[in-house]
Amino acid sequence: MLYKKILLAIDLTDESIKVANKAAELSKAMGAELVIIHVIEALNYAYGGDVPIDITDIQNQLKETARERMTVLESQIDVPVKETCVTQGGIESEIHRIADEKDVDVIVVGSHGRHGLALLLGSTANGVLHGAPCDVLAVRVHRSE
Amino acid sequence: MLYKKILLAIDLTDESIKVANKAAELSKAMGAELVIIHVIEALNYAYGGDVPIDITDIQNQLKETARERMTVLESQIDVPVKETCVTQGGIESEIHRIADEKDVDVIVVGSHGRHGLALLLGSTANGVLHGAPCDVLAVRVHRSE
């Protein structure tokens, strides 16, 4: 079969369910295992340098919220999820690391499919594509603006 | 089903069969129609300006070669191909135009998955991703170097 193991990378925004449903359908059609990852961008990454306050509490809070949202999302899709990971670091590098570690066949990620705003928002699909150890399925999401 | 119509975009190099086989497997798993496109980059695109010679013969030769290679490729994959297109223009814009015109659900394209050389070679997967009217599956190909 085409794919045995699928890594769904989500940002846990409202759009995630659309991307998750596509990954779930793909998983069903292929009989493939589904692993879901959410990367919490380390705050010093997001702000481009050292943060002069103790951010441990904030980071922990972010992790807790992420895990709660992950649970909700998992309950909304109709295929069994093999594993969920909430990890911290650079978004693309963490996705690639987990893809490699778990030897997945394809990464599924949302894409805004546009030049302008996508670049401002940080074009994750594009970043995931470069350097990916496997295939990448970019699922087109239309942002409501 | 996840996808009803798949557009496979290929450059007709030796790597194309790998990408084509993935598209064929996806088509089989989904019961989806498969359309194949090859874009001949207009020579004035490729050389970034007007070409001061009559290039009609060269372009016709390129088209003929492309159609021959398309026929060979079609015979190598084991699913029926609904339609093949050989078109001319900018690679990404032509792929997007045909995807839109034929209302496809996903574009399948090869990707070298690397930063450095991929940029030099013209990162088509990346270009196809931006502005695509649908999902994009980038199939990782390892170039033999």
From TrEMBL, chains A, B:
Name-wise, this protein is Universal stress protein
Main location, first listed in the record: cytoplasm
Which GO terms of the cellular component aspect does the record hold?
Answer: cytoplasm
* Self-association and partners: Homodimer.
Q: Of which family is this protein a member?
A: Belongs to the universal stress protein A family.
The compartments listed are:
Cytoplasm
Domain (UspA) ranges: 3-140
Which Pfam families does this one have?
Usp
Key words, A-Z: Cytoplasm
